[in-house]
Specification:
Bound molecules: fe (ii) ion
Largest sheet: none
CATH class: Mainly Alpha
Order of helices and strands: HHHHHHHHHH
Distance between the termini: 9 Å
Strand content: under 5%
Number of strands: 0
Shape: globular
CATH architecture: Orthogonal Bundle
Number of domains: 1
Length: 198
């Protein structure tokens, strides 16, 4: 991965302002969002996604966790077990995210479903709506995989961090339940190709 192909200089100022707020609120979530957007851009290029669709997808990936602005950073970084109330708040971050991106969605700069549905699972066990695959766009199913892959390979708890092969094995283990099998297959193939040629 060599950085976002789309220059951040051409990203809408409203997106940059939100990202700056996120960086200040929680650097871990900010760094994760940048990496997820980078993977989404890279993966979309392999899928030959149309330029405008790809751009909207990357903008949405940059802001997929923007709803975490509403959640105290102590809760986001808590090392001990979350209370039920804290967990409820965390599970609401996709809905909170919509409050921040409604203007961008109205201008057709982001895809609201990517922000709202990025924690929905293929088998309908995700949150916040228990949506099923048939209700999820390709971009939503892609970010579900990439979000998890980045979380696994860059976990801030060193004990829990997985190498690339372990993370791909985990994606395969959970295909059909958490993840769309076709997206997992394509993602694994492209990551393996990229690691062979690097
Ligand atoms: Fe999230």
């Amino acid at each position: 991965m060599s950085g976002l192909r789309m220059s951040m200089e051409v990203v809408d100022p409203e997106i940059l302002t939100l990202l700056a707020r996120l960086e200040q609120h929680d650097t871990g979530t900010y760094a994760h969002s940048m990496r997820v957007a980078e993977y989404c851009d890279w993966f979309a290029s392999h899928l030959n996604m149309r330029r405008m669709d790809r751009q909207r997808f990357v903008h949405s990936a940059l802001l997929h966790d923007i709803g975490k602005l509403r959640i105290p950073s102590e809760v986001l970084n808590k090392n001990t077990k979350l209370t039920d109330e804290e967990w409820r708040e965390i599970r609401n971050h996709p809905v909170y995210g919509m409050e921040y991106v409604s203007g961008l969605a109205d201008r057709n700069i982001v895809l609201p479903d990517v922000i709202m549905l990025h924690h929905e699972n293929t088998d309908g066990t995700g949150y916040p709506f228990n949506s099923r695959t048939s209700e999820l766009s390709a971009q939503v199913r892609i970010i579900r995989v990439i979000d998890s892959f980045d979380a696994m390979t860059s976990n801030r708890n060193y004990q829990l961090v997985k190498n690339v092969d372990e993370a791909l094995a985990e994606l395969i283990r959970c295909e059909g339940t958490l993840y769309d099998p076709e997206i997992v297959r394509l993602f694994c193939a492209h990551i393996q190709d990229a690691s062979k040629s690097s």
